Amino acid sequence: MSTDFNELAAQVGKALQDKGLLLATAESCTGGGISTAITEIAGSTGWFDCGFVCYSNASKTEMLEVPAAMMAQFGSVSEEVAAAMAQGALGSSNAHVAVSVTGIAGPTGAVPGKPVGTVCFGWANADTVHTERLVFSGDRQAVRAQTIEHSLKGLLRFIN
Question: Is the pTM of this model over 0.90?
Answer without folding.
Answer: yes
